Amino acid sequence: MLALDFEGGAGGTLTVHGHSAREGRTVRVDGTRATLRATFTAERQEITVEDHDVSGFRHGGYEERVSLREVPGMAGRGHGGGDDGLTLAFVDAVRAGLPLPLHEEVESHVLAFAAERARREGRVVHLREFRP
User: Fold this and answer.
1) Conformational region of residue 88, where left means phi above 0, alpha means psi within -120 to 50, and beta covers everything else
2) Are residues 52 and 35 in contact, defined by beta-carbon separation less than 8 angstroms?
3) What does the alpha-carbon distance between residue 129 and residue 83 come to, in Å, rounded to a whole number?
């Protein structure tokens, strides 16, 4: 489990495990007004947003569920087809001569390296340790 503190006071946790009978990903994001849950498995791909106010005062515990269609040919592939999707997007951007937003990809890797250092060394790690 990884605990994150962001600038501006937001916080979060990330839990990763690899010991499950079901391959896939689940995501849960709790905000001040709603919770977003997402499930990406071979059986189900959907996102649900649930309003926190269950009293009926504002929205009556409103919930919206969106089922996603799989991208043809990508079921069961690396990272649920995400690897192929990223590769195709990269190739399309290069072919079209579009700028590549590599800062987002680099930032996600910086976070992963920092999390691994925190895990191995059992200490708080600041992302600035990984930047020039």
Assistant:
1) alpha
2) yes
3) 28
Rounded Cα gap, residues 60 and 53, in angstroms: 6
Query: Quick check: 22 and 10 in contact, CB under 8 A?
Result: no
Continuous H helices in 1-132:
82-96, 102-121
The answer to pTM > 0.85 is: no
User: Hey, what are 6's tokens?
Assistant: 């962001």
pLDDT digits (tens, 9 = 90+) for 87-114: 888 888 889 988 777 777 788 888 889 9
Output DSSP code: residue 132: -
C-alpha closest to that of 43 among 28, 62, 63, 23: 23
